[in-house]
Amino acid sequence: MEKAIEDIEELEKIEEEDEPMIGISFNTDTxxxxxxxxxxxxxxxxxMRRSSRKDSDGILRNVSFACGRSGETRSKSTNILKxxxxxxxxxxxxxxxxFGDDGKWTIRSLNLEHNHPLLTPTKSRLFRCNRSLSxxxxxxxxxxxxxxxxxxxxxxxxxIEAGGHENVTFIERDCRNHIQKERRLRLGDGDAAALQNYFxxxxxxxxxxxxxxxxxxxDQDKAMKAAIENVFPNTRHRWCLWHIxxxxxxxxxxxxxxxxxxxxxxxxxxxxQSSAKFxxxxxxxxxxxxxxxxxxxxxLYNERYRWxxxxxxxxxxxxxxxxxxxxxxxxxxxxxxxxKTTLKQFVEQYSNxxxxxxxxxxxxxxxxxxxxxxCVTSYAMEKQIxxxxxxxxxxxxxxxxxGKMYCEFxxxxxxxxxxxxxxxxxxxxxxxxxxxxxxxxxxxxxCSCSRFQFRGILCRHAITIMIRNDMEVxxxxxxxxxxx
Length: 484
Fold this sequence. Notes:
By secondary structure, the protein is α+β, with helices and mostly antiparallel strands. Helix content is 46%, strand content 15%. This is Protein FAR1-RELATED SEQUENCE.
């Protein structure tokens, strides 16, 4: 009885505090969600993201947050005599917000009426949406687990350190889930050697397979990063550029100058032919749009050598010979590991991926043997490439050959040439300059865009200089690169 009275007094005290109102604005949708979640924690209901809508440019425009007991859930139990517990009550409490022209997120609709009892903060802090493990807690859990301390004692040490259960933001189940995830990413004794032996075995059985683990590409998972550094200390760990750029609307869409920020960011990534140029463009973007406080961008910059092309092109690919680069493309291309994939699972997925790739190559070879694309120019190099490339790769080369019309020789000094290209970006054009080194006698040609190093296709800038120097046939190293 006394406990019930305490709960009622606690709820009455909370109701006196300020509540959300239509018209209140926030800088980002995340900030608004955190505000509503904290409000729900105080009032005694869990909060969930209900819906969202993006415009044609992929920019988030509308969001709604709802009580976690909204909607209805159908029982998945096949035995009607053993129904599963159901949290849903069809509660209609929710908050709707929109992104305005002022760059702010504003509450536009609001319903704070619930159809179920509310809990006290003491209990609502245990909702899943209100629980989290701090970096300190994760580190201590990992250390104790490696020392083979039981989970119950591991968890209890954190509770004692915090001064009681009421002061921790997680429960024992959260600790168990974290430890299990870390264990999956942690290879046991001999697992690293087994992985190496697997690749060597495949290489011995198939002379077309080349293995060195030169590099592994993953998303930005910190646990995976630590595991790779521990297991493959000599392997270069890179981040998937596609995954990073895919997050731009989510991470930067809340800024009023989003379109301009996105354009400058893409220019920094794709148009920077040197690390110095990237640094210049990046810092200009940070200062111009006042992005110094953006944690996501700061984290990307600190790890730029893992994902920015102008840093990567001077790394392991640049130091490999053309033959090595060609033969190792198979191994590198399938070296992508998702953070949800354990390294043991990766071995199985790698094997399946190679089989699928081999099958696709057979299908492509069959198609190429019965079909042939016509040449679009009279240059001998086009026919030369058509005779050795698959149809899809030949089409890539044709795009570069046709793209030559947008390129123009500017000047030269010895073997160094400057080529200007008119590039169209959305509705406007810009002129970009590239450095091409061409040694006709030795059959060497390199371009600062590094397209050949990344795609195995000679670029339009190099083609422009070759034709200018009457080199209508490509040296063998450029014409016979691996058709991956």
